[in-house]
UniProtKB/TrEMBL annotation:
Protein's organism: Novilysobacter avium
CDD domains cross-referenced by the UniProt entry: M48C_Oma1_like (cd07331)
Gene3D superfamilies: Metalloproteases ('zincins'), catalytic domain (3.30.2010.10)
Cofactor stoichiometry and binding remark: Binds 1 zinc ion per subunit.
InterPro entries: Mito/Outer_Membr_Metalloprot (IPR051156), Peptidase_M48 (IPR001915)
Name under which the protein is recorded: M48 family metallopeptidase
Top-level taxon: Bacteria
């Protein structure tokens, strides 16, 4: 009876979510919260970043990032083009991010590895790829489902074996869900953002081959990497191989963009 109740409860939680298809044709479970709520969360998080983190006062670098961002977002499908905002943070770590609601953050440290406009476009396009592929929605929906399932399992075990069993379930189960369920999904999302982002940069007239050079620079600048199965990112060398193969197939898209006048001159 308890197993049946658990199955019914989990099925009900999953049924509340929607199924959609990602830009690469992958089936996704989304809808844990509404798109409006997700956008609001992204906007609020971005506002908090801007209020707490130091902003760059380098006008030339800010204009440079703006040029790359605008060149990329112009190539997005109609509804996704408008409303993008970015901020350049004075932070030495080579990082960038994008959030639902059309928010992009770039650290000044990214210039250490993204040494050309095409390499910077590879970084930003990858982050935009996460947003337009609804990865934040998908991940949040999966986390909601995982936490719901763990709570139900813990409650059932607690009722039968006591509070100690319930606490152990939460601790061990949380690690299990993180290692087997959530992290592998994140690696899938990272690979998908590579696909979407590299295609976007080629459509905008940036050289997709430079995504390969970017990751070579990333490896050179980093000291050691965690095992692939414990990382939210694909293995860097596997990633470079895939990016290199894909760059060849995107050569026509890139040349067509250039022939059509999409020739960014950001810096």
């Amino acid at each position: 009876m308890k197993k049946l109740l658990l199955a019914i409860a989990i099925a009900g939680a999953v049924a509340a979510c929607a199924t959609t298809t990602s830009p690469t044709g992958r089936t996704q479970n989304v809808g844990g919260i509404s798109q409006q709520q997700l956008d609001q969360m992204g906007q609020q998080a971005f506002a908090e970043y801007k209020s707490k983190l130091p902003r760059s006062t380098n006008r030339a670098q800010t204009a440079y990032v703006a040029c790359v961002v605008n060149s990329l977002t112009r190539e997005l499908p109609g509804a996704n083009q408008a409303g993008w905002e970015f901020a350049l943070f004075n932070d030495d770590s080579p990082n960038a991010f994008a959030l639902p609601g059309g928010k992009i953050g770039v650290n000044t440290g990214i210039f250490k590895v993204a040494r050309t406009q095409d390499q910077l476009a590879a970084v930003i396009a990858h982050e935009i790829g996460h947003v337009i592929s609804r990865h934040h929605d998908e991940r949040l929906t999966r986390q909601i489902g995982a936490q719901t399932g763990l709570g139900l399992v813990g409650a059932l075990l607690g009722s039968q074996y006591g509070s100690g069993a319930q606490q152990t379930t939460q601790q061990v189960g949380g690690a299990l869900v993180q290692g087997v369920f959530l992290l592998p999904n994140s690696r899938t999302q990272e690979s998908e953002a590579d696909v979407v982002g590299q295609r976007l940069m080629a459509q905008a007239g940036f050289d997709p081959q430079q995504a390969v050079t970017l990751w070579e620079n990333m490896i050179s600048a980093s000291s050691g990497n965690p095992p692939e199965w414990l990382s939210t990112h694909p293995d860097p060398r596997s990633r470079i191989s895939e990016l290199r193969n894909r760059a060849g197939s995107l050569a026509g898209t890139y040349q067509q963009a250039r022939s059509s006048g999409r020739k960014p001159t950001c810096g």
